[in-house]
Amino acid sequence: MKVGIYTDVHYGQYSSILRMRGQHYSKRLENCIQSLNWAEQLFQEQKCDMVVCLGDFFDHAQLGAEELTALNELKIGPGRHVAIVGNHEITNASRTFNSMSILQRLHWEVISAPQIEAYHDYSFIYLPYIVEEERKPLVDYCQGASGSKIVFSHNDIKGIRYGAFVSEEGFDLKEIEQESSLFLNGHLHNGQFLNEVETILNLGNLTGQNFGEDAFHFKHYACILDTSTLELQFFENPYAFNFVKVDLTAGEDLQSLREIPNAVATIRTYEDQVASVRQALEELPVVANRVLIVPRETQASVTAEEVIASIDHLDLFKTFTLEKLGNTTLVQQELAQLMEG
Question: Where do the domains of the chain lie, and which CATH numbers do they carry?
Fold first, then answer.
């Protein structure tokens, strides 16, 4: 069997600095549609038997009118389509009520609870998002599976960096390696294999979402799994938004953006260089940008006003929130959205 796989589309009207309008919908929403239709066409051309989304198809638990209407633009191909519920599609720990359910009207199967699907010589183990308080050892979720154990997951993995954070929760890498033949995970956007034998994969998001990502190092892929060999083929999304950061105050070169298609860039620069930076951006393949101004030091002494201005109030707010509400994945994600918004 050939299985087409993608994850973390975060289908939504807006995200990060992508607030502009497109031709019919928002620029962000049109890019989600373009990326999904590209993946569907790819899977048809590659003769995939089924398609799996590893969670966070949607960006929110509630969908707006424009988001619902734009679903009509999706060109879903033939064959079985399965989506597991991610953390962004639920309002609380319960996965019963989720925005993913709307996909059933497009003939998708939505999986909101762990389950096993056994075939002749391999098994699929579906693991939608599980909060830490409810998480069991991976071996418990694999009970009854036979043959090669292929896990489709949208969960935390201990010690893995995503955005500015390192996950302190989730499944243990050694446990995953012992209990599964292949572990394909969404949720954590930095696409990469997590072990030397390349059986544990963070697939990464289908298209860029915010500045917690680094397109200089991580690309946006869909992949195809051959269940007879457990081999994966990767295909880079040519329409993906690529979020990057360039720090001109640290000697980095703005021309590096020429290497990045569909770039969404944040640029740190000195105040007296803003005009030249904005002019240069007009000639670069940048979808959207934000320019952060860093003042040059002009005095040897530091005034009280400069001391106050130098305080990172957002960092203080983040530290205070983590101390009061706990360093959980959901709190970290909400903070990341606030600080990137």
Answer: 2-236 (3.60.21.10), 241-296 (3.30.160), 304-341 (no CATH)
